[in-house]
Design brief:
Elements (H helix, E strand, L loop, with lengths): L1 H19 L20 E4 L2 E4 L26 E6 L13 E7 L4 E6 L5 E7 L2 E6 L10 E6 L4 E4 L4 E6 L5 E7 L7 E2 H6 L7 H8 L3 H8 L8
Helix pairs in contact: 3-4
């Protein structure tokens, strides 16, 4: 009986550890401003951090998200990320902000954030958005979609494929927050067909159940990164 209780406790701890490791670790101090030079840093909570006595307000500041970005590119969108690389004071705080500009009929192509949930609010225009679930019990992947207007908010759960598309004749703007200081982004088409070195075409032809010549054509395309 004791061994059964021990195994159950061990399983619970393993589950808790796996859940905890899926997100940014909680900070053990007020802030940890990231620095690249360890000679001018303190080692706190597993990170090199600027000496708190040398921290300035500028370490928590970024300017320019009011400026529209250039959307003249193949996908018709431009993502401006404000993560720990842009604001060093975000280090260990587990949050990121982004501005997304859309040309008329532009899109933020299907992609995932492996380390963060995203919440998006539309400032201007109309967006068709959605995400796809992981495999369900029936073996299917369920699609959740919504048309968002100015002031509307939508959530994309961590790790799931999602997208945004501007349905309107005018530009659109949205802001997004993510639950990680560096949520990462994997744009599906770019990763599958534009990897370096490329994935063996035989593998992709089998996976997509299409002729190998189609895969060869797709792998020769220029896959634009809008981030």
């Amino acid at each position: 009986m004791k061994s059964a209780h021990f195994l159950l406790t061990l399983a619970i701890f393993a589950l808790a550890s796996s859940i905890a490791s899926a997100y940014d670790p909680s900070p053990l101090q007020d802030f940890c401003v990231a620095v690249d030079d360890p000679e001018n840093a303190l080692f706190v909570n597993g990170k090199f951090c600027k000496d708190p006595m040398q921290v300035k307000a500028e370490d928590f500041f970024f300017s320019g998200l009011d400026t529209p970005r250039d959307t003249h590119n193949p996908v018709g969108s431009n993502v401006t990320q404000v993560n720990v690389d842009m604001i060093k004071g975000l280090n260990t705080l587990g949050i990121t902000l982004a501005r997304i500009d859309f040309a008329p009929y532009g899109q933020n192509p299907p992609h995932t954030h492996p380390r963060g949930t995203e919440i998006l609010v539309v400032l201007e225009g109309t967006l068709y958005v959605g995400f796809v679930t992981s495999n369900q019990k029936d073996g299917k992947n369920r699609l959740f979609t919504k048309v968002l207007n100015k002031g509307d908010v939508f959530v994309f759960p961590i790790g799931l494929i999602h997208f945004q598309f501007n349905q309107g004749h005018t530009p659109a703007v949205a802001f997004a927050a993510l639950s990680s200081q560096n949520a990462g982004v994997i744009t599906i088409a770019n990763a599958v067909f534009g990897s370096d070195p490329p994935i063996n075409p035989d593998v992709l032809a089998k996976a997509f159940q299409v002729d190998k010549n189609i895969i060869n054509h797709l792998q020769k395309q220029f896959w634009y990164d809008n981030n």
